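quick one, two chains, predict together pls
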Amino acid sequence: MTLTAAANRRTASDRIVFDEIGKHYVRAGDQLQVLDRCSFTVEPGEFVSVIGPSGCGKTTLLNMAAGFTAPDDGSVRVGDDVVTRPHPSRGVVFQQYAIFPWLTVARNIEFGLTLRANRRPRGERKDVVRRYLELMGLEPFASAYPKELSGGMRQRVAIARAYATDPQVLLMDEPFAALDAQTRERMQELLHETQLTERRTVLFITHSVEEAIFLSNRVVVLSARPTGVREVVDIGIPAPRSPETRLSPRFVDLRRRLEGLLRSASTDEAGARR
Amino acid sequence: MLSAGRVLFTEQDLLFDVRVSMTRVCIGVAVGSLLALPVGFLLAWYPTLRAMAEPLVNFFRALPPIALVPLVIVYFGIGEDARISILVYASFFAAVIVLFEGISSIDPLLVRATRVLGANPWEVFIRTVVPASVPHLFTAVRVALGVSWATVVAAELVAAQRGLGAAIQDAATFYRIPDMYVGIAMIGATALLMDLVLKLIQSRLTTWQEKTR
């Protein structure tokens, strides 16, 4: 079966390693340390969320993994490669969707496969597009333009487009932050189901503790600036997870604990400012 | 005025004047916009080039094209070349400014998304920057069209045998006031018609665009 093949294919080359990351900005002559010796690893096939106080540099970490920003100290490695620039082996899903408004849904999903770096024959492209249209529940909209779609549907297109090029790892930057609460939960469930069949290495940035618990194998909690890793929490709730999972004692416990960690991280920052 | 119009259309062949002016405008706008297209892309793509060229562009844009008529006559004579080259000039500077403003306002996130999917710089340009620029190209052509109509009539008033401006000048010479009004009305009507046609093509080509109302 192709699915098992895909699952077995996940090897050490899909591991994401953040190694002693440091980043600082110079503002008005002062050096502002944003990230300081920040280290953690996302294992192959693992779904890891990163949460932290707002402005702590979560998105900066993702941008480094994507190759948009370079760290001042340390390095980000995906497999054996040190990340220096964007590469199709690292798919990115953006908060603002960033799908192409002049292409239909099907053509958006197909886009990556028509580029020289990962071009596939037409027949294969059609198969991939059909598969992700189905997986994301987008079949009725295959020939629609993005302007006709709701926010949730647009984000499904963006996720499908990221999966379609078969990247080693997926980087998601608060992909559901712009959606209303109901759509958001539905999207979390959809992404969870997708992850169960696709088994990718996923780095997921969010500011929602609940979202992080529901989706992840592990959650990395960052401290306030200068940001390091405050704690890595194992979720350990068996898959498949369902809407009821959100009400289970284990889930509620984790939520309390993580929110406590976040709150104390934010007070540290307030204390440090004074 | 109506009877004056009838006489103008039948005996003096006003439609021929309309066609002459329209042809001049079309050629001017087409050549001017085509020249503006690569320049617009270059200026939007390279910020340093833009910083250097922008004052220059603004300088030439500020000159009323009609002020160049005497100069152009010295170089090109009073033939068709002279009139067209003024229109090309007018269209170019109107279009180039709209184009580079538009192209530099393209969402950088789309460019980023394209790169992340594996696009090389050429693919980023041809697959994302170009399609995202199409609406701006239409806006540029429409602006150029407006400027060119203003310019062509003024140029014809000064130096031309045919064309709407010449027809109005002709009427003025013989004090035919109603004829002048007909000529002026024809300028508005023709410009309106061309803009409508352009809008129609635009809505066909950019069905994907979100209407913000």
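The beta strands of chain A are 16-27, 30-42, 47-51, 73-78, 81-82, 90-93, 169-173, 201-205, 218-222, 229-234.
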